[in-house]
Amino acid sequence: MNRLSKKIVIATSISNIFYRKGLQINPLSPNFISSIRRFNMKTDQEWRAILSPEQFRVLRQLGTEAPFTGEYVSTPAQEGFYECVGCSQPLYKADTKFPAHCGWPAFYEAIPGALKVIEDRLLGMVRTEMRCSKCDGHLGHIFKGEGYNNPTDERHCVNSVCIKLNK
């Protein structure tokens, strides 16, 4: 059962409880259900229709692009912001990008609320994975305390294929 189905079952159950107790709650209408459908509830087929194969592999299957191959690896900080390719949510102000020489674009600070962070133990070590808070797309990892000369001493190591510059 997917997340939307679980939410519908829970909401319907709650409305039935209130109905039996004599309280007025309207059942969920199909229009309401479709309006609460979120980006991260798209099927793989729907994601494949809007993403390139490489974007799908990285953003939806937790992949990593090869180092030093991405479009934004060596571009300098600019005006504007970088947004998620999956849902167009703004993720980083362009002026927070810095040259980390690590093989992927690096930023020191995300736009507040743009990221969801998750403990990642997939490779036998503890890392901090970052995902888009809107579509739940995998973006990369956050590394702290590496001694970079930036305001946060963080390196948000982002796959270029997951972002686009909006000027």
From TrEMBL:
Keywords of the record: Metal-binding, Oxidoreductase, Zinc
GO molecular function, one term: peptide-methionine (R)-S-oxide reductase activity
Protein name: Peptide-methionine (R)-S-oxide reductase
Family designation: Belongs to the MsrB Met sulfoxide reductase family.
Naturally occurring in which organism (per UniProt): Australozyma saopauloensis
Cofactor binding: number and manner: Binds 1 zinc ion per subunit.
Family matches, as PROSITE patterns: MSRB
Domain MsrB: 44-167
Native organism taxonomy: Eukaryota, Fungi, Dikarya, Ascomycota, Saccharomycotina
EC number: 1.8.4.12
CC cofactor: Zn(2+)
Signal sequence coordinates: none
Reactions that this protein is recorded to catalyse: L-methionyl-[protein] + [thioredoxin]-disulfide + H2O = L-methionyl-(R)-S-oxide-[protein] + [thioredoxin]-dithiol
GO biological process, one term: response to oxidative stress
